[in-house]
Structure formats: C-alpha cells, structure tokens
Amino acid sequence: MRASQDQLIRPRGRRRVLAAGLLAVALALTSACTDGDGGKPSSWQGGGESPAPKAAATISEPAVDAKDVPASTAIAFSTKDAVETAVELKDAAGKAVEGTLAADGKSWLPAGALEYGTTYTASVTATGDDGRPATATSTFTTMAKPGKQVRVSSFLGDNQVVGVGMPLIVKFSRAIPEDYRDDVQRRMTVTSTPVQEGIWHWVSPTEVRYRPKVFWKADSKVSYRVQAGGLPLGDGWYGRADLSVDVKIGPSLIMTVDNKTKRMTVTRNGTVIKTIPVSLGKKSTPSSSGTMVVIEKLRKTVFDTMEELGPEEGYRTKIDFAQRLTWGGEFIHAAPWSEGQQGSVNVSHGCVNVSMANGDWLFRNTQIGDPITVKGTERKLQNGNGWTDWNMSWEEYVKGSAVPYEPPADPDASAAPDATAGADTPSPTPTA
After folding, report:
1. pTM, two decimal places
2. Predicted confidence band at 409 (pLDDT cuts at 50, 70, 90)?
3. Which of 159, 287, 328, 427 counts the most CB atoms within 10 A of its CB?
C-alpha cells in the first residue's frame, strides 16, 4: 500500500512531538508535588507541536512497491519550496548506488544499469529555507534478466587517435523503433575537453552518429557513453549493457582538392604544408564533389572491378597507399601509371590519383577521420556514400536528432578548431 505524504516526510517530527508531550507531563507532576508558593501548583509553558517543514518531496517513478522495474530506471521526483535537494539509492543490503542529478533537477540517473531481480530503496530529501528536511521514499524491485537483448557497439575503440572530421559512430544489433529513439538518445552523452557543441544524428534505425558543429578542435579529449543496459528498446527487447569509449583527436589535417587546378592542398593546424598534383575521375567516371573523411587505410590492396564493370572495362590492379573515402569505391591512392597526367588531366575511375612518393607521404601523415573536400567535378557526393556527416549543413544535421536541438548556453562551445596532437594505434572495437 502506498504510504501517505505525511507518513513519508514527517516520521521524525512525530517522534519529537511525542517526547515533548511526555516531558511536559513529568514536569507538571513534579510541580504539583513541590508547592513552593502557598501550595499553588506551578504551570509549565511550552510543548507545542513542531512546525511542519516548508519543503516537500514526492517520488513519481518508480512507484512505491513497484515490481518488474527496468534495470535502466531513473528516479523521477518533484519538490516544493526546496532550496536543496538530495537523492539517495540503496540496495537491500544498504549499499549506496552512484548516480547523477539531471540538469533540470527533476530526475536522478544511476551511473550504471541496476542489478536484475534486486530490491532498491530511493530517497529524495528536500530542505527549505527553514532548514527542515522532508523526505520521500520508494522501495521497488527490478525485473528479471530479459531474454531478448540488443547489443550496442562503437566503431572506435578506447585510446584511438582520429582526425578532426571523425564522427562518433554507435550501432545497435537490432533496429530501434522510432518511438524509442529519443529515450535512447537521452541516455547517450558526449563530453569533450575543451567543450564543443554537437549533436547525435540517426543515420538509420540501427546506427546513430555524433559530430560537433564545426570540426573537432585538435588535441581534444572526447568521451562518450551509452547507458543502454536494461533500457526498453521496443517489442520486449532491452539493451544488453552500457558502453563507454574514450578517444583523442589528433592534429587538424585537412585536404582540399580543386578540379580546376588539379591540385590537393594539405593544411596542418591552419598552415599549408604541402601541395600535391592529382588526377581525378575522367568524364565517364567523375570523382564526387563534397566533403568526405578517411574511412580506412590500406597499405597494399587490390582493386577488382571485373564483376561490376565486366571484362571490357573492368580491371584487377594492385594498389599502394589506399585511403577509402566512399562506400562506392572512391579512394586517395598512389597511381604510378598516371603520374604523367597528374596536375593536368583527369584519367581515373573516380579516385584521387597521386604519385607513389606523395601517396606514401599522405599515408604516413593522415589518420582515420581526416577530412577531404573535393570541388568542381561533374558529380555531387551523395549523402550516405561514406561518412558524409560533414557534407550536410548544421541545420540539416540537427534534423536527424530524435531529441529537439538546444544550443549551448556557452557561446565558446562552437569555436573554430585549432592546435596540435599525435597519432596512436587503434584498440579493438568495444561492444556491449
């Protein structure tokens, strides 16, 4: 049975009132037996009931004595006339659970998924300007471990160093229904040092990405977390576990290719460090104009288009220093056979051809997530053909969020990129 609000917030006050009443009776009896003034019993003034606290607290979720509560539950509550609010969650053994208070002050989220089939007690204490606390409590039991669980994975691994154009990529092993995506996104947090404005964008029902408003600041530290453990994801499915990843942003290395000049300009932290002659796609197979990022790097590979183009136009060629830009097969790569045309004529099948020496130099200086913008070709880059997050305006990108976009209060959060960093070896892809 749900306890009344008076029972929830005033038990200690009633004990004090009872003690005061007993003391008053004892003093009255003593005065009657020790008449010090003509046999008239003296009277004791005081002993009135303590005033109720000005503040009040109510827990709305989980409800008192609730069963089968998702392990992802937050403590939702409201307070009245409170100048200070404290939230505490303990398991049946009295062990406290770590967590954080939401920015709006209306809910508290455990730091991780709760244990399945376990009883917890939540307490919310509100203190008013009179200094008197009022406490509401709710005891509940989490659900048994579900049989249908969704795995969450990150493309990036801990301690990986990536380029300033790298989107954070999170994938789900099962499609997330549209009605549940806002719940998921509210459990996805990104922390960057220095602070930078950004937002999540749903690419598909199974993939969501995050990018800042402008390129990441060089040498930034970025941490992202998905608190999906025990989270309802529709049709009886639940998140399997939470996921946390820490990465580092490298130097601001940006490549720009101009079809008019047939040159690539490479800048590091705002300074031009190299200009490279290129050959782009010929008219029948033009390169895509737009902003892409390096998706993968292959020191040696084989390009095989025999099945796609047939025996007349297809080819099977060994390639050095290949850097993928699109899923459709556009790469930056060394092409010794076109070195005579690089800088003057487009002869490739859509790739950015460079010399062996320049291919080697680029391969050694770039990393996954470095951006490249190609300008002035006959074909526009199709969004979705690669990591095309930067091929969209910020206004377009925020439309892919399942949660309404709110600009940050800090105007410095969207400042332009800068600075310096190094490179590192990626760790294995984490999954949850």
Report:
1. 0.81
2. confident
3. 287
